Amino acid sequence: MNKTEEKEYSFSKKSEDRFKELEKKFPQRSSLVLWTLHLVQEDIGYISKPAIEYVAKRVGVSKSWVEGVCTFYSMYNKKPVGKYHLQVCHNVSCWLNGSDKLEETIKEKLNIEHGETTKDGLFTFTHVECLASCGTSPVVQVNNDYHEKMDPQKLEELIEKLKAEV
Amino acid sequence: MSSLEKRILLKDWGKNNCHTIEVYEEEGGYTALKKVLIDEKDKWTSENIIEEVKISGLRGRGGAGFPTGLKWSFIPKDTDKPKYLICNADEGEPGTFKDRVLLEDLPHGFIEGMIIAGIALGSKQGYIYLRGEFYKPWQRVEEAIKDAYNKGYLGDNILGTKHSFHLTTYRGAGAYICGEETALIESLEGKRGHPRLKPPFPAVEGLYKCPTVVNNVETYAAIPHIIINGGKWYANLGQGSEKSGGTKLFSISGHINKPGVYELPMGLPLIDIIEKVTGGIKGDKKLKAVIPGGSSTPILTAQEAKKAIMDYEGMAEAGTFLGSGAVIVLDETTDMVELAYRVAYFYDHESCGQCTPCREGTRWVKNILKRFKDRIGSADDLDTLCDFSEYMSNGATICPFGDAVKMAVIPIVKKFREEFEARIDKTEKVHEKISIGDR
């Protein structure tokens, strides 16, 4: 990660408002850590070092506490990810219904491996564990949305559509 | 719809806008709450609500199957501390997708159940812990909570009575272990999801060191129906053992024609569910095996599955568990070595790392199975695997995660051993050693 990416962080207006609402809902402030990290990720796409310090200060816990939480949970991105985060479930039911082919499609079409981002910064690919979409498997989660009953052709079309939207 | 289905919790599923408060009310929603608070308020004392839930035989639908009424009765009555109610919506047991239906399409059912539970237990604050990936379900639940506040079902002085109950959502961030109730509580306190040593149990010392009840979404969703129709009615819905009352939501996936969520009475033969409810195996293939209750439950061979009964007792008799009711059906083409590896990979990824036997053991299990996947297993690997899995279970760790690994992986190896033996590298030339630093 180069230094120019590690900009100072403070909440966007939307996150500031949301944080103030959340502060009223928990009797102990430490409960705000996970929520606040979600807000950071909505703002800048990942959890930067300055953001960890900011969260610690705003919530009122130590920096190491926030960092410990950030590294424990897999949804918090520890480095910047692409505009579209393609997450392919590779657990049992998705595997039985062809998730390997989806992983191959992404590798071939975008030339990236698990954990990598395309050079243009558009796509990141990770394989993930069960997303509770086994009855409509295989599933690909793109950012917050589930795309269910996928096959290689549908996935290629989706990637093209996302590229066109930029 | 198959004639075996019995829709109670899912009765409104599929109707237009079934997630809205308007449709829920039209279909009789929130009448159980009105009964408890207004129409029959003298009858529904705290004790009587808990008693009715006990009579219903309702057991925790998240996977452990602990009797709900009994769990509720552990909450101390003479305490000055606030009491908390938590809804476990951290649905993550591989194969399970039934809570997602309730959260996304029928949120008011379990919300009403939570309010009634709050009244019974003297709790004024509930939290709904959703797995972080459930963004759309979270939005639906937020909308439902807002509507319930506006209609006076939530908040201070519910429906003009002296009772108050508030609900707040919480989003996890991708950690399977947070489905374990004490890890969930830690997570809700803003920490890493490390399970706690028990006792103290959450009923005595849970969230913020206060008495806490944690129940699954489906468990809460059954409560309004038990209040309206009676505990005895609910218990009698079950067709199997007397100890397994009611209906259960089954998440059925794998090599079948009609995967999906089905609400069925407890106690049906597993083979009827596969053949009559889900339309049988895809493409005229033969059944090879079934994982009956989510990936942590021991696998059944086709022969065992043909005799198995789907309730808590029936599954115990078959040497496995009902778990979360996540049935994964495997046809004759399934590669059991790959299956075991996928399952082990999951547990290795999700071990929270707190206890050494589990943190290290899950990686060893995965590494050994990787050797079989790569066809370089050695003759004594299988015995080593079965042997050391004993050391990461049976109380060696704080929570049952280590036991789950053993239950998930070892039966696959034992029941389909010949498939593993066929992957032994008989040249004995390339026997990779277990490397400590390859994680």
Q: How is this structure best summarized?
A:
The complex is a heterodimer of chains A (166) and B (439). Chain A is of the alpha+beta class and 166 residues long.
How would you portray this structure in words?
The complex is a heterodimer of chains A (about 170) and B (about 450). In chain A, about 45% of the residues lie in helices and about 10% in strands. Chain A is α+β, with helices and mostly antiparallel strands and about 170 residues long. Chain A has a five-stranded mixed beta sheet, with helices on one face. In chain A, a hairpin with a 5-residue loop joins strand 2 (about 115) and strand 3 (about 125-130). Chain B is an alpha/beta fold. Chain B has three domains: about 20-235, NADH-ubiquinone oxidoreductase 51kDa subunit (Rossmann fold, 3-Layer(aba) Sandwich); about 245-330, Roll (Ubiquitin-like (UB roll)), CATH 3.10.20.600; about 335-439, de novo design (two linked rop proteins) (Up-down Bundle), CATH 1.20.1440. Chain B contains 18 helices and eleven strands. Chain B has helices spanning about 20-25, 30-40, 45-55, 70-75, 100-105, 105-120, 135-150, 180-190, 215-230, 230-235, 270-275, 300-305, 310-315, 335-350, 355-375, 380-390, 400-415, 415-420, and strands at about 85-90, 125-130, 165-170, 210-215, 245-255, 260-265, 270, 285-290, 300, 310, 325-330. Chain B has a five-stranded mixed beta sheet. In chain B, a hairpin with an 8-residue loop joins strand 8 (about 285-290) and strand 9. In chain B, helix 3 (about 45-55) crosses helix 6 (about 105-120). The longest helix of chain B has 18 residues, at about 355-375. Chain B is globular and about 80 Å long. Residues about 435-439 of chain B have low confidence and may be disordered. At the A-B interface, helix 2, helix 4 and helix 5 of A face strand 3, strand 5, strand 11 and helix 14 of B.
